[in-house]
Structures are given as structure tokens and as C-alpha cells.
Amino acid sequence: MRLNYKSISGIIGMGYFVIGILIILYNKFFIDLEPKWARILGILFIVYGGFRFYRAIKYIRENG
């Protein structure tokens, strides 16, 4: 598999997804967070990561 921009974008999207899960589990993101704010930030990271991953996969399927 050749790594192009969209492939790397998909990998980065998965990274954002994982970071979101870790923020929710550990209630930390460089500083200690209250559980409410950790969940909000974690969900934002998960949604953004899923969006990036979806766009990368869609582009790869359409353009070979």
C-alpha cells in the first residue's frame, strides 16, 4: 500500500479516535479534567477522528 495524503489522514483519524477514548478513560489531557469536561472533550475527539477516517476511506474507495 502506498502512503499518500488520504492514507495518512485515515491513520491520523484513528489516532484522534483513540485519544478521545483515552481522555474519557483517564480524565486527563495534559491537565487533570473534571469527568464532565473529559467526556465532552473525548467525544469531540472521537467524532472528529471518525469524520477524518470516514472521509479518507470514502476518498480512497472512489479514487482507487
Automatic annotation (TrEMBL):
UniProt keyword annotations, A-Z: Membrane, Transmembrane, Transmembrane helix
Record field: transmembrane: 12-31, 37-54
Source organism superkingdom: Bacteria
Name the UniProt record assigns to this protein: C4-dicarboxylate ABC transporter
Species for this entry: Apibacter adventoris
Taxonomy of the source species: Bacteria, Pseudomonadati, Bacteroidota, Flavobacteriia, Flavobacteriales
